[in-house]
Amino acid sequence: MTQTLDPAISTNRAVIWSYRLDGAGGGKQQDGYPATQSSENGFNWLHLRSDDSESIKYMRGMNLNPKMIEALSANETRPRMQLLEDGVLINLRGVNTNPGADPEDMVSIRLWFNDSIIISARKRERKLLSIEDLRELIEEGKGPRSPGQFVALLVEKLANRINDVVDSIDDELTGVETGLDEKWESVRHIQQKLSTIRKQTAIIRRYLAPQREALAELYRSAKYLTEDDCHTIRYQNDRIIHYVEDLDLARERALVLHGELQNRIAEQQNSRTYLLSIVATIFLPLSFLTGVFGMNVAGMPGLENPDAFSILSAGMAFLGALLVGYIWWKKWL
Q1: Which residues form the domain of 311?
Q2: HEC states along 265-325?
């Protein structure tokens, strides 16, 4: 099938890159949209900027399905899969492993494919390293041999990076558990870490749960997929289901650790309050005596006796020892 593109439409802003894959794992980068969509001797891959107005004009110039254009250029997406008359549309999410980014700030990748072309789209400033990995494989001649295999490889790359993030969350929780046993006095640091972990698990799980449903629909439909492609996607979907369960467990562990931290804080505060109460019990009677005998009024006993201070001090020491002995006998210490 021949596709005509309006020459007035700029491809510099719309297309991030365009490849003609040879069907044997390799491919060659090309300028703009190729003149043919024939599935013979390979297929095409276009990677577009979804948030650029030129991309919409570009796709319209290719006479693509309006529903597909709307889905590929949508501002916000959730993982889903949809069968269209001339292809398959699937939205996926990958963890943000770009330097300095938060992993839970998941990056959206929108795909539309059939047996002769793949169109992927992402926002201008939102690179997805799994897509970069596929490009490197193509440059090395180890890339996908069909659009279905392309999707299967992308799902695998996404799952691998999700696995890394889930493992790091598990390691952080293990570190918090160790910190509670060894140096749990750094309460604020532990609280901040638990808060970050709970936020990460909630956001990542929010997108992984619908993503597993989208992948399940994809391999069940088997549209433009070989048996091997379906097997790969099914296996990677099982991994994602496992990661969702791990995130649920991580969230529960974080809640348990938060509760344990609060219990230890309360226990520490109670211990200090109890110690202050014991000290007050001992010194309250002594403070009463010093207050009484410290009154500068006429008639106070011992004012003319030079041994009065020694007698009072000895009496207060005896009373203090008596109180400590009583507290010890009552096992309050």
Answers
A1: 294-333
A2: HHHHHHHHHHHHHHHHHHHHHHHHHHHHHCCCCCCCCCCCCCCHHHHHHHHHHHHHHHHHH
Closest to 91 in 3D by CA, of 215, 242, 238: 215
DSSP letters of 247-260? HHHHHHHHHHHHHH
Give the separation between CA 311 and CA 328, rounded to whole angstroms. 26
Split into its structural domains, the chain has a count of: 2
Q: Could you tell me if 226 and 298 lie in one domain?
A: no
Q: What Cα–Cα distance (Å) separates residue 147 from each residue in 5, 88, 214, 224?
A: 22, 11, 17, 7
Whether pLDDT at 182 is above 80: no
Same domain, 233 and 303: no
The pLDDT of residue 5 is: 42
pTM score above 0.85 = no
Residue 162 lies in a domain: yes
For residue 29, the SS3 value is: strand
